[in-house]
């Protein structure tokens, strides 16, 4: 089977870092054509540094990394240093990157790649705000029909919000971009908080990651160890949710997940509910389904996969 070709669009972020590592650990199944960075958890300059740090941690300094949009389409940037630390990658001490940042803008890389490659051969994996993806669709509408699938981390329904009472961070930061992406008609799989909050790095799982015994294992244990300090206070749970790696795990082993085809519309009018993913779970409207809403996960199977693959790096 030929490896699936993907572009990871990201705002690293500890959980982004684990998603990138998981993808880079599986070259037999996934060919990472490039990593496009966006402003989100921390400003763009830091996300481009963090993405390269992670590539070099995986000894994959040949993966091209691109800088993208430094602010949302129509709102001021909101960042999340209180969750990810000032660097966006707090936890382990990792060396500054030596690999270069590509000269090409991330949006142009997305457009050029989709134009140059066969239709329906490239999957987009956005795990931060959707600004780069939406900008590419606005600048080059011809590429929309060429996208094979979008597998994104974002949104929430029964789980409610994590940055406002009703909105999840990635969608809230750039709701106008999300409106474009969810309305583009591309086959779309969403990994909302409803499923990612079931992928918790418990102490036992963190110990198993550390027990991999490699620099990657130790770094991931420290990344998730830092990330988890935030969760128990708010959610009273043991461990941090591994949001972004759920997208890569779906591509590797979709049977670990359960989902439902639903209609999702993005709130962009009211400040009170800005960025809410209004999910027609019970089919109350005549709006056609536009997303596969993933709501359940075999968490033990997910962590078994993660640990087994990270050990390859
Ligand atoms: O709400 C969780 C999402 O916001 C994750 O992608 C995390 O990295 C942050 O970007
Ligand atoms: Ca992210």
UniProtKB/TrEMBL annotation:
- Start and end of every Inosine/uridine-preferring nucleoside hydrolase domain? 6-304
| InterPro entries referenced in this protein's UniProt entry, alphabetically | I/U_nuclsd_hydro_CS, Inosine/uridine_hydrolase_dom, IUNH, Ribo_hydro-like
Task: Write out the entry's keywords from A to Z.
Answer: Glycosidase, Hydrolase
GO terms classed as biological process? purine nucleoside catabolic process
Question: What is one term from the GO cellular component aspect held by the record?
Answer: cytosol
GO MF entry, a single one: uridine nucleosidase activity
Protein name, as recorded: Purine nucleosidase
This chain's source organism reads Roseovarius lutimaris
């Amino acid at each position: 089977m030929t490896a699936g070709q993907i572009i990871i669009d990201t705002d690293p972020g500890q959980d982004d870092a684990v998603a990138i590592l998981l993808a880079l650990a599986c070259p037999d199944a996934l060919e990472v054509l490039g990593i496009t960075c966006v402003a989100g958890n921390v400003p763009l300059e830091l996300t481009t540094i963090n993405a390269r740090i992670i590539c070099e941690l995986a000894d994959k300094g040949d993966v091209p990394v691109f800088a993208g949009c430094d602010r949302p389409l129509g709102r001021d940037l909101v960042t999340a240093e209180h969750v990810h630390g000032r660097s966006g990658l707090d936890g382990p001490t990792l060396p500054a990157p030596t690999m270069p940042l590509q000269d090409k803008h991330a949006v142009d890389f997305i457009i050029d790649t989709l134009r140059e490659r066969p239709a329906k051969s490239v999957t987009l994996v956005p795990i931060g705000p959707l600004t780069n993806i939406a900008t590419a669709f606005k600048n080059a509408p011809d590429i929309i029909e060429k996208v094979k699938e979008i597998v994104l981390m974002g949104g929430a329904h029964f789980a409610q919000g994590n940055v406002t009472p009703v909105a999840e961070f990635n969608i809230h930061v750039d709701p106008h971009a999300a409106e474009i992406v969810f309305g583009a008609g591309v086959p779309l799989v969403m990994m909302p908080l409803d499923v990612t909050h079931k992928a918790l790095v418990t102490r036992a799982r963190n110990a198993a990651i550390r027990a991999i015994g490699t620099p990657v294992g130790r770094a991931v244990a420290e990344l998730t160890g830092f990330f988890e300090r935030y969760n128990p206070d708010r959610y009273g749970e043991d461990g941090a949710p591994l949001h972004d790696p759920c997208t890569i795990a779906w591509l590797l082993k979709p049977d670990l997940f359960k989902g439902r085809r639903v209609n999702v519309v993005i709130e962009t009018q009211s400040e009170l509910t800005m960025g809410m993913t209004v999910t027609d779970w019970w089919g109350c409207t005549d709006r056609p389904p536009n997303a596969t809403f993933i709501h359940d996960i075999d968490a033990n199977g997910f962590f078994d996969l993660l640990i087994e693959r990270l050990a390859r790096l």
